[in-house]
Amino acid sequence: MTDGQRILYIRKLIKKSQQDFALMLGISQAALSDIENEKNGISYPVFKRLVEEVGIHPYWFMWEQDPIFRDNSFHDKYKISYKDASPTASVSASATSKKATGKKSGVQPEVTMEDILKELTMLRGEVSKIKQEGKKSR
């Protein structure tokens, strides 16, 4: 799943309109639409609100590792079962997710927002390089 697809999936899962979800994220409905349609990526402030306000687990958003929500209080808040909030349960762990945990056992190390920001910055840098290489080859 792309970032936009994950945002759309979460919005549908918690049964929010684009307008309501945009308000939760502190952005306009048009900005949310652009993210969902892959016209724009998400900024760090939006990612932070997804984690802190909406309750999305950063590992799920970045590497599609279960669980989707950080804790059960968010399942209760949105009235969804763990089973319903587990689109990646049938997906095996990718090489990226194994790298992210540092262990094949699936034990997750303690992660801070600073760690996540560093990882996102690194990934965005790689994406920028790929885009620049694509423009040069045209």
TrEMBL record:
<dbReference type="InterPro" id="IPR010982">
    <property type="entry name" value="Lambda_DNA-bd_dom_sf"/>
</dbReference>
<dbReference type="InterPro" id="IPR001387">
    <property type="entry name" value="Cro/C1-type_HTH"/>
</dbReference>
<dbReference type="GO" id="GO:0003677">
    <property type="term" value="F:DNA binding"/>
</dbReference>
<feature type="domain" description="HTH cro/C1-type">
    <location>
        <begin position="7"/>
        <end position="61"/>
    </location>
</feature>
<feature type="region of interest" description="Disordered">
    <location>
        <begin position="84"/>
        <end position="108"/>
    </location>
</feature>
<dbReference type="Pfam" id="PF12844">
    <property type="entry name" value="HTH_19"/>
</dbReference>
<protein>
    <recommendedName>
        <fullName>HTH cro/C1-type domain-containing protein</fullName>
    </recommendedName>
</protein>
<feature type="compositionally biased region" description="Low complexity">
    <location>
        <begin position="88"/>
        <end position="107"/>
    </location>
</feature>
